[in-house]
């Protein structure tokens, strides 16, 4: 064999090894740079506080672990969420969001819709080929991932799609301590690819929370981080009506102020903002004005306060609790909730195993056990029970 042929073989072998390395090594390395934890476990929590936390029903309205290549049934040493860590923290229900598109050069001020980082992530993580060019297929693939996790979980992860599922989850948890519920949310209706019929497809796949926008303007309306930041389009208005007719919960996280105004003028059901901050403690365009917090509360909905610096202008769980205190003082304790944004490319103050620290921070803010119970999950459960379909 000639030296040229041997050279070609060596090059092909090198490329093959490099490709294998990319698929095996790149995903965890990439995630470790994106989903950081300020304080690593184990967490020191007083026995009395642990006991109080165990008496609560904990709901987290937003996290993005389905985006990453991790087995969520196994405890991981990186990232924020997996089923063992959720069980450790007595989490009753975790909302799993499906992200289908993220612009390059991501920022909180102004993003165009003509670039996408998820395509690269899908390729490197060996997602099915159908997901490489279809936003809808990316959402469906993440739904399939969650369903497979539930099927393999030996009863530790129960999917929630209806009020009956929710009630069954709560009933089982009275005796089954190693059980957490999972509910699917869509982060941005660009995943519908401009087709209202795809809402039915996503409903059938288990999606029950629909976020209108993410980091860029889309067919439904403006993003708080988009170029135009406009209001609802005609497509968006019809979509809002369809979402509520299907007993799905509308999420205004990342929506432009004009979209929020338009939805509040249209809605006949509670709406949420799953993961955000409030301008009263952290004034930027990512966060909600006092008027919008009041508007969400007026629908009977809830505002989920997140756990990252841009949302609460700080890196500790005390900063998140401070934002909740502001919201409660503004609209009452029935309209604030938890929306961590775990695994959403953030640095979190702790991972999911440290949720008792959140309860502790609320108590330190002067909330009673009854008030903390509402914030940590009771308010979210009330809204879900009001909106979700009944079998």
Strand content of the residues, in percent? Answer: 5-15%
CATH-defined architecture of the largest domain = Alpha-Beta Barrel
The gross shape turns out to be globular
- Helix fraction bin: 40-55%
Number of helices: 14
Radius of gyration: 21 Å
Strands, count: 11
- Unreliable parts: 9-24
The CATH class designation of the largest domain is: Alpha Beta
The CATH topology assignment of the largest domain is TIM Barrel
Compute the number of structural domains. 2
Jot down its keywords.
391 residues; alpha/beta; TIM Barrel; 2 domains; 6-stranded parallel sheet; 3-stranded parallel sheet; 14 helices; 11 strands; 43% helix
Q: Can you tell me about this structure?
A:
With 391 residues, this protein is of the alpha/beta class. It has two domains: 1-34; 46-387, Metal-dependent hydrolases (TIM Barrel, Alpha-Beta Barrel), CATH 3.20.20. Helices cover 43% and strands 13% of the residues. It has 14 helices and eleven strands. Strands 2, 3, 4, 5, 6 and 7 form a six-stranded parallel β-sheet that branches. Strands 8-9-10 form a three-stranded parallel β-sheet. It has a two-stranded parallel ribbon with strand order 1-11. β4, α6 and β5 (180-187) form a beta-alpha-beta unit. α12 (317-331) packs across α13. The protein is globular.
């Amino acid at each position: 064999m000639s030296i040229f042929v041997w050279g070609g073989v060596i090059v092909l072998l090198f490329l093959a090894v490099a490709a294998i390395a990319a698929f095996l090594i790149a995903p965890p390395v990439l995630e470790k740079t994106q989903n950081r934890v300020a304080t690593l476990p184990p967490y020191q929590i007083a026995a009395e506080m642990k006991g109080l936390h165990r008496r609560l029903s904990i709901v987290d309205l937003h996290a993005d672990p389905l985006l990453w290549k991790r087995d969520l049934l196994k405890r991981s040493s990186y990232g924020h969420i997996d089923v063992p860590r959720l069980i450790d923290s007595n989490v009753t229900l975790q909302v799993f969001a499906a992200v289908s598109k993220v612009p390059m050069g991501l920022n909180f001020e102004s993003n165009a819709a003509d670039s996408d980082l998820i395509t690269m992530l899908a390729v490197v993580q060996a997602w099915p080929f159908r997901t490489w060019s279809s936003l809808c297929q990316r959402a469906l693939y993440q739904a399939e991932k969650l369903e497979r996790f539930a099927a393999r979980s030996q009863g530790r992860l129960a999917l929630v799609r209806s009020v009956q599922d929710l009630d069954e989850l709560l009933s089982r948890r009275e005796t089954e301590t190693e059980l957490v519920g999972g509910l699917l949310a869509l982060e941005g209706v660009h995943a519908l690819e401009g087709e209202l019929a795809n809402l039915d497809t996503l409903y059938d796949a288990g999606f029950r929370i629909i976020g209108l926008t993410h980091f860029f303007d889309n067919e439904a309306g403006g993003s708080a981080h988009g170029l135009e930041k406009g209001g609802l389009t005609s497509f968006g208005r019809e979509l809002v009506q369809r979402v509520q007719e299907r007993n799905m919960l509308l999420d205004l996280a990342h929506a432009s102020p004009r979209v929020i105004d338009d939805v509040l003028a249209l809605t006949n059901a509670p709406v949420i903002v799953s993961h955000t901050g409030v301008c009263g403690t952290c004034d930027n365009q990512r966060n909600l004005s006092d008027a919008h917090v009041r508007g969400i509360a007026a629908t009977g909905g809830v505002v989920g306060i997140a756990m990252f610096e841009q949302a609460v202008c700080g890196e500790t769980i005390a900063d998140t609790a401070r934002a909740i205190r502001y919201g409660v003082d503004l609209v009452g304790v029935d309209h604030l909730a938890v929306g961590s944004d775990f695994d959403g490319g953030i640095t979190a103050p702790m991972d999911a195993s440290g949720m008792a620290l959140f309860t502790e921070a609320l108590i330190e803010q002067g909330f009673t056990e009854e008030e903390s119970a509402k914030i940590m999950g009771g308010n979210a459960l009330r809204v879900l029970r009001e909106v979700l379909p009944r079998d």
